[in-house]
Automatic annotation (TrEMBL):
GO molecular-function term, one example from the UniProt record: thiamine pyrophosphate binding
Organism: Georgenia subflava
CC terms in the record's Gene Ontology section: cytosol
PROSITE patterns with a match to the protein in the record: TRANSKETOLASE_1, TRANSKETOLASE_2
Name of the protein this chain belongs to: 1-deoxy-D-xylulose-5-phosphate synthase
Cofactor(s) needed by this chain: thiamine diphosphate; Mg(2+)
GO biological process, one term: terpenoid biosynthetic process
Signal sequence segment: none
Pathway: Metabolic intermediate biosynthesis; 1-deoxy-D-xylulose 5-phosphate biosynthesis; 1-deoxy-D-xylulose 5-phosphate from D-glyceraldehyde 3-phosphate and pyruvate: step 1/1
Residues reported to bind thiamine diphosphate: 73, 113-115, 146-147, 175, 286, 367
InterPro entries: Dxylulose-5-P_synthase, THDP-binding, Transketo_C/PFOR_II, Transketolase-like_Pyr-bd, Transketolase_BS, Transketolase_C, Transketolase_CS
């Protein structure tokens, strides 16, 4: 039986010798590479926290002492050490989540994969512990250097510093990277601590001389090595955290279990807020990840474990189209600049940065700052394009509303991974953007259905300089081209089928392909329909209202919340106009979604063409039973 197989719960770790722990760390790395290569997942981040997580679970008594992981993508080792070692179905329906999950274990606290929240969670838990007489229990927050660039983290630090009598240990997992190297003043400060020249020289001296002078020398070095804090204070005074009133221990070699245990034990004994600054390496121990210049295997698909190469080559998808088109736009308009929140490559801005290095801004994991700084840029004569994953715009809705829209700023938001993403769990689905952005006055939102409409709608969005615009599209591969057969004002007509009564089938974005399937299926039952794509879906256009009035029933299909989405907006607009055409809205239900594939979720929510056609036919039958169908509108 391997050492890893002997671990059923963290207490089992505490009976292991130093030598056994080293073997365990290697077994865990081998497991991570083999297993995550097979399923895909966050390989690099988890390879970087093997020793750190072992040390945390040896020093702290989870679950009595809560361990909170920021973002949670680096919690695989935590799962392995807390009784979950079947990773065969990782991130798949019925398998382990790729993030902490309370239904999986009482060792897990935060399921939210949005970064920079862990310190706030820990602050709250520590306050509750104190009030409930549990103040002797430490709370531990493991936060990456990237997540530490998020504003929430500093709001939390400000409050944590106020709790000098609350035992709260912040483990900064500093690998110097988000996807790419972490940006900004904080990153530079951490870097300075990490690479203080005198500090390293003294350490090297210790390694060279003390370790060679027999047992006393080795003991002296171990004392020094384990107490890097002492060395650091003398050599690398650091004001940032201690200026806030938060004790700082480090930098510590995050891959040295013994050193981490000494630092964590000291932090635990301190009894107040402490930062343990661990220096780690993303992708550690796996050469393809260690040498990966892009993102150290931050998130991989299925790969060959020997080489790290993807089993299936990545396909030209939505992101690639945006990446090409924004460069074309940038060539034509020198006032267009791009903003990313620590995800330059994943959102497709790398080619733009390559060609216009001075016109791209990586603000760190700081979406709120990204949005409001864009309002500033627009005010001062630029047209910023902010590229985010849709779900992460949730973080900056107030800034969209009160800094961009209130001032009618010409800012364009490009939302990738909009709609159902699936395997990254509940908080990664881009399902809220249309419902949230529907409430923003003056904002206009486009949902392209294929490559051509993405290119066109992006160009149209950037051409609007006196109001916020949004272009949103899903994750992954592009669908086939879906050309319009006619245009009615601003609305693309995709198909027309004769028959009575007549249904208006509205497909939002990529769901236009589903809408066409619905029209075809209804036609087979003798039910007439007009299938359309409104292109600019919010606010609801007069052209769409006019079309709706010409039909007996309206069916909308969208890859976002059904409640308060585009269909709901159309229903409200028709009601406000005194038109009582019934509207059936098909979309994502208002609940948090278990991790599963997108296909599984589409099927579960009856969003396939055949599902919607079946439900629509029933609705039509009910309609016919209760009303005489209107005469066929004159064809246009
Ligand atoms: C609010 C938010 N924005 C963006 C992301 C996407 N994201 C996931 S992990 C990550 C990088 C995190 O870097 P760090 O905190 O240093 O952790 P590491 O991966 O280096 O362990 C980013 C930007 C996110 N999860 N949440
Ligand atoms: C944790 C996080 O937010 C990202 O790493 C995300 O998991 C990547 O998602 P994609 O695979 O869609 O780029
Ligand atoms: Mg990092």
């Amino acid at each position: 039986m391997s050492h890893l197989e002997r671990i059923r719960r963290p207490a089992d770790l505490r009976r292991m010798s130093t030598a056994e722990l080293e073997v365990l760390a290697k077994e865990i790395r081998d497991f991570l590479v083999t297993s995550v290569a097979r399923t895909g997942g966050h390989m690099g981040p988890n390879l970087g926290v093997v020793e750190l997580t072992i040390a945390v679970h040896r020093v702290f008594d989870s679950p009595a002492e809560h361990v909170v992981f920021d973002t949670g993508h680096q919690a695989y080792v935590h799962k392995l050490l807390t009784g979950r070692q079947d990773f065969t179905e990782l991130r798949r329906r019925g398998g382990l989540s790729g993030y902490p999950s309370r239904t999986e274990s009482d060792h897990d606290v935060v399921e939210n994969s949005h970064a920079s929240t862990a310190l706030s969670w820990a602050d709250g838990i520590a306050k509750a512990n104190q009030l409930r007489g549990l103040g002797d229990r430490s709370v531990v927050a493991v936060i990456g250097d990237g997540a530490l660039t998020g504003g929430m983290a500093w709001e939390a630090l400000n409050n944590i510093a106020d709790g000098q009598d609350r035992s709260l240990v912040i483990v900064v997992n500093d690998n110097g990277r988000s996807y790419a190297p972490t940006i900004g003043g904080l990153a530079n400060h951490l870097d300075a601590l990490r690479t203080t020249p005198h500090y390293e020289k003294v350490l090297d001296w210790g390694k060279r001389t003390l370790q060679r002078s027999g047992p006393p020398g080795r003991m002296a070095f171990d004392a020094l090595h384990g107490m890097k804090k002492g060395l650091k204070d003398v050599i690398a005074p650091q004001g940032l955290f201690e200026g806030l009133g938060i004790k700082y221990i480090g930098p510590v070699d995050g891959h040295d279990i013994a050193a981490m245990e000494v630092a964590l034990s000291r932090a635990k004994a301190f009894g107040g807020p402490v930062i343990v600054h661990a220096i780690t390496e993303k992708g550690r121990g796996y050469t393809p990840a260690e040498t990966d210049v892009a993102d150290r295997f931050h998130a991989v698909g299925v790969i060959h474990p020997e080489t790290g190469l993807p089993v299936a080559p990545s396909r030209f998808g939505w992101t690639s189209v945006f990446a090409e088109e924004i460069v074309e736009i940038g060539r034509r308009r020198s006032d267009v600049v791009a903003i990313t929140a620590a995800m330059l490559a994943p959102v497709g801005l790398a080619p733009f940065a390559e060609e216009f290095p001075d016109r791209v801004f990586d603000v760190g994991i700081a979406e709120q700052h990204a949005v409001t700084s864009a309002a500033g840029m627009a005010f001062a004569g630029l047209h910023p394009v902010i590229a985010l994953y849709a779900t992460f715009l949730n973080r900056g809705i107030d800034q969209v509303l009160m800094d961009v829209a209130l001032h009618r700023a010409g800012v364009t938001f490009v939302l990738d991974r909009a709609g159902l993403t699936g395997d990254d769990g509940a908080s990664h689905n881009g399902m809220w953007d249309m419902a949230l952005l529907r409430t923003v006055p003056s904002l206009r939102l486009a949902a392209p259905r294929d490559e051509d409409t993405l290119r066109a709608e992006l160009r149209e969005a950037v051409a609007i300089d006196d109001a916020p615009t949004v272009v949103r599209y899903p994750k992954g591969a592009l669908p086939d081209a879906l050309p319009a057969v006619a245009r009615q004002g601003s609305v693309d007509v995709l198909a027309r089928h004769g028959g009575v009564p007549r249904v208006l089938v509205i497909g939002v974005g990529p769901m236009a392909h589903t809408a066409v399937e619905v029209g075809t299926a209804l036609d087979a039952q003798g039910i007439g329909s007009t299938v359309v794509d409104p292109r600019w879906v919010l606010p609801v256009s007069a052209d769409l209202l006019h079309l709706a009035r010409q039909h007996d029933l309206v069916v909308t299909v969208e890859d976002g919340l059904a409640s308060n989405g585009v269909g709901s907006a159309l229903r409200d607009a028709l009601a406000a106009a005194g038109t009582d055409v019934p509207v059936r809205c098909h979309g994502v239900p208002l609940r948090f979604l278990e991790h599963a594939s997108r296909t599984q979720l589409v099927e579960a929510f009856h969003l396939r063409g055949q599902d919607i056609a079946r439900e629509t036919a029933s609705a039509v039958a009910a309609l016919v039973r209760t009303t005489e169908p209107t005469s066929l509108p004159t064809e246009h």
